[in-house]
TrEMBL record, chains A, B, C, D:
SUPFAM superfamilies: RmlC-like cupins. Pfam families: Cupin_2. The gene is gtdA. PANTHER family: 1,2-DIOXYGENASE PROTEIN-RELATED, CUPIN. Keywords: Dioxygenase, Oxidoreductase. It comes from the Bacteria. This is Gentisate 1,2-dioxygenase. It comes from Terriglobus albidus. InterPro entries: Cupin_2, GDO-like, Gentisate_dOase, RmlC-like_jellyroll, RmlC_Cupin_sf. The keyword Oxidoreductase applies.
């Protein structure tokens, strides 16, 4: 990103001004003009940087964690992916948290609920489940699973293989707004109240229950099976749908509203055909990507991120991004786009357009 | 507020674990279980504290500032009210900025626009104007004025008296989400394109322009004259409207939607009758109050804030609040409530209710 | 309007077909192709015609009615304005009912409620009231008053002069959809529960009650005083606002939503400057006009309707309309536009535009 | 239904009144009090009656029609199902039209569009298609297909068997509101622009296209395959979902909004287990049912309608309804419920509830 001139030139300092500023400080006040240029910037100033976590490096560390701590002791055995630009923050972007969670055969992660909304994108293994509000869904690679705000959830693995997934949460948002609440369920594992598939069959087949009223702001269906998502992408690819910036890109949708599955996190799935060389775009929603399959590279400004299956990488706000795929690849991604839109502050720009950059929402 | 136990007990540390954590750090990863209790808290953890800025102390500092710097040099001659719990942050709450701005006779504050939304609540003086999108509105004490996101605005004072107002902005929100943009208008003072009162007569008289479609997410009317707001409060007082927690309290409304005038900031006006002793409540939206008139005190937990006309005070998130008025008083207030609601994370609790605390939005 | 060819040419009849049609009829069936051209028409086929009711002719009939029947006996002493194209139907358009109601000093019209939504536009006299849900509003010429669906309402005249107003209801809609319900209040006059002006001060001053949730689909404020509406029009006229088709035209608005005050009826107020010669437009919502003041003429296709104060006239669907004013005039109007929009079937066309007709919602 | 007393007692007639009424009629006016009781009724007055069309009787008539007229000549070869209470009206309810359409091998029904919205529920045969906006969908029994307002559509049958379906349209609504428009496509068969399944894969798999904005008010997916709908019902039956009034009942949903697939017509699918004996309910939306499979009977007040596969029957407004199934049955149904809700006039009552009747929307 080119250097942008400051919005406001800081006035010179004098002895009189300096003394005055000191007296202001005693009253918990300070002159705006001394800090205006850092508060109101001409373009977004993101303290995070582009970064990648390679699965082949992280996977052994995940297994090592499994030997060092149990899920019960850890509550959730997760390796937080922390943005190098924000060390010690537990943030992968300024507003989002991401981590790699593993649950081994026979383990359970105890039931709790919190204001923070969470998503899971399954990377490896089969046979574990996520339980939400009394229904368990079996986790399979590529499945997109929600555990929405303030809903009881737990995980367990009655199967035979280690199951690893990417966690995405809005913890920084909940804490920035000072709205965190959390509780443990009285039981380690919440009781099963529904048959597997009940939510999907009630809400995910093109119909809704009679006179259904959505309760809350999250999708009533909490699993988006990869089988269906992949089928959609492949059909559209075969039909020649193609976006020069994004390949074939879809957004996960709440069937009861058509909006985002959760009020703070948007999630997307895109297919990049083999040989895809995308055009450049930028948007204000810093975005976390997970290469669900395939191999390619993403340019963030001048930074090259070469990725392969299950690598996770992050793109800061307003940095130009373009994707290339060496082989057919599927990228899962999530960001705070829906939150930014709800607050009227989201902006996007398509670069390398035939004519001028196309700006949305200005 | 009672001390709340941590959500999760941090596991013990061993040599093996310690080494493991070090290797994680090299990969920009860290164990969630080491920080879970500070990330996911059982109740909101607000780093700000209750505080008050007394007008009789701030007013001389405002005048002193006027002798030391011009609005042109300062861009905006504002004393930021900085929360004592967040020194150096330019934040009055975790999500909001507040300041005291003054414009002296003959001065102009140059025209600019930014993504951050702003409100003005006029405290003293008459004869200045705020211009928004080509229309100037004369500022009078008690007027609530908007300069919404990305709309050109400037101020000027062709009158004879110093005019002081409270600024409220969502700068921390714009920066947290990495969405800041700002521009200067090519002219110091934007051209006048409309007659004063045009917006109010188009949008504020119970009618809207034929086939009106709202552009953006902010109210098309940008001044809420105190004359009307006060009339509403006084009528309802005379009619016996009375809320044991809030006195007579109304929220400013976008006539084109019925929602908040701006997508990130809610604003309220309330009348406390002389002798009012309110019950206690708490909500997750930390709130900035300005005593528009009268004299009283507000209890925030165990902290007493005694206020009189034009004092500004702030209440952190989830702290129990109750108001008392020695004489009939009018309190203006603003918070990020509308933003929290849009994100599905706002919560409120009425304490001292006849039965149980009443919790909203849980 | 030019004659439009039928959408479908009716097939010829044969002996075999004729016998077949007879056998269908025995089974409550009939061939679509025999009636298709009358069912699915290329342009709207409105059975009503343009018509005018002159106040100087109707006023004596109103007074005569007052001598022949009491409001108690009549329930409502109203002269229905019945479209000449639909004799016996009690419809002024295919979807709306209109009538002239009078209440003399000392009279009361008993309290009832019904699913049909009603509006009142006051034409003459002062001192009567309309009571809605426990609040009475004094009726003054030019006031626009709602008695929304299923809300108790009654009228009374404690004053000294006869008060006349125009009633507009959606009775044909309620009956077409088979949704009519109606009840009498246990008391002739519902108890007074609120001070006059309470609704206006709660909902009509730019603010709303704290955490207000709209109950139902109608405006919580039920009077739009002429003083304010007229002030808006006159201000905008002075500012040079001017629409070549409509003069200065505003739509009444629900302050809690920005939408229509009632879910089935839209209402408008427009000022035609002296000498105004409007361009032609047409829309699918047949519209009832009341000349609140002034004198002019309206062309509906080739039909000229010359109107003066308190005349009521009606324009059918999709007929080209243009207004002319000899002196400054104010026209009140209402239609089912909001209902058509809610059903996705409203269409409008601006004729005499500089280039092509501009069609909305096609 | 019990007889309901009139809302208002008609006043007596006198010579003076009679003469007066005559003079009113000359001015296209009439006294409300003479007709009030028929205009404003205490309960809905539906002029239609419960009725059934048996497929075994209608099917031969459909085939006979195929020998007597071609689709090109007929435009659409449909037998209208006309309510016995409204002979000559082409209405099955006061607001809806229904018909049985057949297309034989090799036939095409020419491309046109109209404001009226249409649904198709496939009864018999396979191999025909419906084309909407350039995409063809193969019609299979139980499929629910939309041809929304003002969208080009045509049908063709390249297969080998006669295909029969139920048509449902809102023609009476379009004509009541005077909003009918219709056009023929320049070509008999609109060009194919999309691959079969494109809409379903874009909108029906739990995701939506990136930054999708709904155009219009109808679902962007225009086929709801029976395979999926049936799967949903059977899963929920196996899970023990069961409503004492409706069995297992779902409503078709627009994936982009969660609302009705079209703005004027709601559609439902319900499974009645073998031996089901439903409780009684009534609602203001008169409803058309089609027995997609199974055998049973429906009571409408005291009228028994015994149905089997592909029979069509209609229930008037506000009549108590209860269903019984001799064998496991699937009922498709549609009504104007979504339109009534949009207008704020829909009402429903669950009878035989444990306590009082439960009324919605009063």
């Amino acid at each position: 990103m080119t250097v942008e001139a400051a919005f406001h030139e800081r006035p010179g300092i004098s002895e009189a001004r300096s003394q005055y500023y000191g007296r202001l400080a005693e009253k918990s006040a300070r002159p705006l003009w001394e800090v205006l240029s850092s508060l109101v910037t001409p373009v977004p100033r993101d303290r995070t940087s582009a970064a990648i976590w390679r699965y082949r490096e992280m996977r052994p560390l995940i297994s090592e964690g499994a030997r060092l701590i149990t899920p019960e002791e850890a509550e959730r055995r997760v390796l937080i992916l922390e943005n190098p630009g924000l060390p010690g923050s537990a943030q992968i972007t300024q507003t989002l948290y991401a981590g790699l969670q593993m649950i081994a055969p026979g383990e359970v992660a105890p039931s709790h609920r919190h204001v923070a909304s969470a998503l899971r994108y399954v990377m490896e293994g089969e046979g574990a489940y996520t339980a939400v509000n009394g229904e368990r869904t079996t986790m399979r690679p590529g499945d997109f699973i929600l555990t929405p705000s303030w809903q009881w959830h737990d995980h367990g693995n009655p199967g035979g293989s280690e199951v690893v997934w990417l966690d995405g949460l809005d913890i920084p948002i909940a804490n920035f707004f000072c709205t965190s609440f959390a509780q443990h369920h009285p039981q380690t594992t919440q009781p099963v109240a529904h048959r597997p598939g009940d939510a999907l069959h009630q809400f995910g087949m093109g119909l809704l229950p009679l006179e259904y009223k959505l309760d809350g702001m999250s999708a009533p269906v909490f699993v988006y099976p990869f089988e269906r998502s992949q089928c959609a992408l492949q059909h559209l690819q075969a039909s020649g749908h193609h976006n020069p910036w994004h390949g074939i890109k879809l957004q996960y949708s709440n069937p009861a509203t058509g909006g985002s599955p959760m009020p703070t996190i948007s999630a997307f799935l895109q297919l990049l055909p083999a040989g895809f060389k995308g055009k450049s775009y930028r948007s204000t929603d810093a975005t976390v990507f997970c290469a669900s399959s395939g191999r390619g590279r993403t340019w963030v400004g001048d930074t090259e991120l070469a990725w392969e299956t299950n690598d996770v990488f992050v793109v800061p706000s307003w940095q130009p991004v373009r994707h290339e795929a060496e082989e057919e690849s599927i990228l899962f991604s999530f960001s705070d786009r829906v939150a930014q839109k709800a607050l009227g502050i989201w902006r996007e720009e398509y670069l390398e357009a035939d004519q001028e950059p196309v700006q949305a929402n200005v």
